[in-house]
Amino acid sequence: MIEHHETGLTARHLEPVPPSARNGHADHGTPVPSWHVLPRTIAETGLDISLLLSLLLKAAYLHRTVTLAVLTDTLKLPATVVNEVATVAVRERLLEIAHRGASDLDVRFRLTDAGYTRAAETTARCSYTGAAPVTLDAYLDAVQRHSVGHASVTKADVTAAFHDLVIPLHLLDAIGMALNTCRALMIYGPPGSGKTYLAQRLGVLLPGAVPVPHAITVAGEIIQVFDPLVHRPCDDSETSLARRSLDRRWTLCHRPVVLSGGELTLSMLDLRYDATSGFYQAPPHMKANNGIYIVDDLGRQLVGVAELLNRWIVPLDRNVDMFTLRSGVRFSVPFDVWPVFSTNLEPAELGDDAFLRRLGSKLYVGALSLDDYREVYQRTAADFGLTSPDAAFDFLVQSLHFSGDAPLLACIPRDLMRLVASSVRYHGHAPQVTEEALLIAWQSYYGLRPSPDTPPPGMSHRWQGDHRAAG
């Protein structure tokens, strides 16, 4: 697989894909999903008044005096609901009306002394301030309706999604078929072959947009789900009016692609409670629900491979994961992701047959063919504004790759061209790839010491002693 150049990725279309869509007919008569309905009362939010009251007091605590418009924007709730909560706060003498204008929205509230004390205590216990959460049931319903299992792709979809990459056709077909099974995928091969880049690009294959809540509430606790580093909101031009969320506690997003690398530990796969803030963060695979979860560099994590793989057995089997709150309350959420594992190890080296059986596909991504390597080289040189004669490419392959037993990996052209372009800028040379520039870049890239009797470029080249490039 060849990395070419960075491009903005967009989904093929941004309409949620309901189960019935796979059967070719509309799903008439089903209830309107909760995320698509604008709540008009406290009861319609599904939340307890005590939770809403605490969120309102904390929002007011930041300003001491606050308008209804600010509270509405902070809690992401309609003015009718916020006003109903504020009425309760006024009745309990936690808030007082500091100003009321001609408009229903022209209202300013002020915390009373009792309200200020209550808000300070509430903030100390849980500092979450922002959009009101949604219920666990509403979240489960949204995930089920937008399940990644409803997605399917065709050969044309895959070809269009990877049109800017140089990639073998048989690998493209294997990727498309793997997605349609919606079972876990393992991508393995040598370092630098493009496994991680390929895995991250898989997200463009997933059709549809998904509603993501800012937070959910379970047993009175708040779990933050929306992550701006993971979830990319769809703008209005990408979604039809009929599909936009009316409840602003939800954000309509592209299907997420979440990556965990060598830093992954078992504790990161559970709810993360911050004693200082007083609320929970959802683990990465929960943030990836309705999308792709990539475990990169499997085998390089701080935790042993066997322990990490055992953690995935139940979610891969049952498509659910279990979590436990500090209070001991246990609950389950869907494990609705397309899991992708990327590793430099051979599948047999993982030594876990139970895990390997649960993988739908295992795809090898290795060195490129000479023609594919040439195509990547030429594209990469053009990306850096460099011209390259055929003789320079022949020198790279024959005198550097082949003599050094270095495979034609996807990452090498870009890494070498970056060094050559840097040398061109430094020396003020013409933007052209020369054999000398490639040799210097190669030696720098592999950490080779130049031999005192290095022959001129174009002649047979040998590395000194044990400093040959390793594949």
Provide tags for this entry:
five-stranded mixed sheet, disordered N terminus, Rossmann fold, 3 domains, alpha/beta, Arc Repressor Mutant, subunit A, 17 strands, five-stranded parallel sheet, Helicase, Ruva Protein, domain 3, ATP-binding protein
Description:
With 471 residues, the protein is α/β, with parallel strands linked by helices. The protein folds into 3 domains: 19-23 and 137-364, 3-Layer(aba) Sandwich (Rossmann fold); 48-131, Winged helix-like DNA-binding domain superfamily/Winged helix DNA-binding domain (Arc Repressor Mutant, subunit A); 370-446, Helicase, Ruva Protein, domain 3, CATH 1.10.8. 35% of the residues lie in helices and 16% in strands. A hairpin with a 6-residue loop joins strand 2 (95-100) and strand 3. Helix 2 (49-61) packs across helix 5. Mean pLDDT is 86; it is low at 1-28 and 458-471.
